Amino acid sequence: MDNHVAPVPLEKAYRLINHGPTVLVSARHGGVDNVMAAAWACALDFDPPKLTVILDKQTLTRGLIERSGHFVIQVPTAAQLQLTYEVGNRSRANVPDKLERAGVQWFGVDGHDVPLVAGCSAWLACRLMPEPHMQDTYDLFVGEVVGAWADTRVFANGHWNYEHADPAWRSLHYIAGGQFYAIGASLKADPLK
Amino acid sequence: MDNHVAPVPLEKAYRLINHGPTVLVSARHGGVDNVMAAAWACALDFDPPKLTVILDKQTLTRGLIERSGHFVIQVPTAAQLQLTYEVGNRSRANVPDKLERAGVQWFGVDGHDVPLVAGCSAWLACRLMPEPHMQDTYDLFVGEVVGAWADTRVFANGHWNYEHADPAWRSLHYIAGGQFYAIGASLKADPLK
What we know:
- 2 copies of one chain form a homodimer.
- By secondary structure, the first copy, chain A, is α+β, with helices and mostly antiparallel strands.
- The first copy, chain A, has 4 helices and 14 strands.
- Chain A has helices at residues 60-68, 81-89, 98-102, 132-138; strands at residues 5-7, 23-29, 32-38, 41-46, 49-54, 70-75, 106-109, 112-117, 122-129, 140-151, 155-156, 159-160, 172-176, 179-188.
- In chain A, strands 1, 2, 3, 4, 5, 6, 9 and 10 form an 8-stranded antiparallel β-sheet that branches. A two-stranded antiparallel ribbon of chain A has the order 7-8. A two-stranded antiparallel ribbon of chain A has the order 11-12.
- At the A-B interface, strand 4, strand 5, helix 2, helix 4 and strand 12 of A face strand 4, strand 5, helix 2, helix 4 and strand 12 of B.
């Protein structure tokens, strides 16, 4: 594991996706590792942390998650703009070398049998909480976060440091047609009076 | 209705929240209008457009939605930073003049009996799709978007124009403790080869 990757306390894991970034969803089953992009992922609870993610029935990653019961939600960076777009718009079903073409590199974490994408800013290892009706009707999957890590160059002490890190670390927020926004300036509200 | 507020075609409504902004959730029932902030709202489907939002059992707005079956998801702006923080951190149950203190002003749209918060950048009028198990277990509510509008000064022709609009129009992305990020720079991926 990279020297800069550090565990995040589970009760603060929601902060890794609270700002609504587009994420990468990865999973492993039967000797196959895959990853896709998803703009529709969202925190669901604080402690224990949970999240939702929408996974189209046609994606190979969904099948890996249904069979293994585990997945990883990770936060890609502006430096991974092209990787994110490519893994979100090609399927291994049609493009067998999708991962190589996009430049995906994996790493692992002891105690978690899931593939993590190198170079991201944060990772949330999740256990699928089966909700068959929501999965079938809405493609909505619920995960309980069982492990969380972040790159200390952009997230430390429970806080993002986008404003002090290199802009290449900024999160990506997809709109449509290959167009994203990076996260921007920090704004602080006044305390309640 | 403000001159700058224009309808958004329903098949493009998902783009109004695809970048994961913190939203305001408003509803009306029995002569009461209320609004709260929610960081956990997410697109769920394209056409017909649907979305999810997490609503804590203690919020007054949740009760209005359960009773009326309708609500509005709207995208507040950087100019509404303090308003957003205040309506997310005070309840009318304890602070009866919460809306006046936060400076909330309403407007309406013909054909939709729901209150819209003036000054936002986009509004999605939703019909509650009852999912009792998800509501009870996870506080997760599903809405079908039945009307969508945006301020043409920042969203036009199906696209956000944050990069050309005044920074006061930028969306807010909440982290914790009163700290938000504004949306930032536009980034465009290369077409697939």
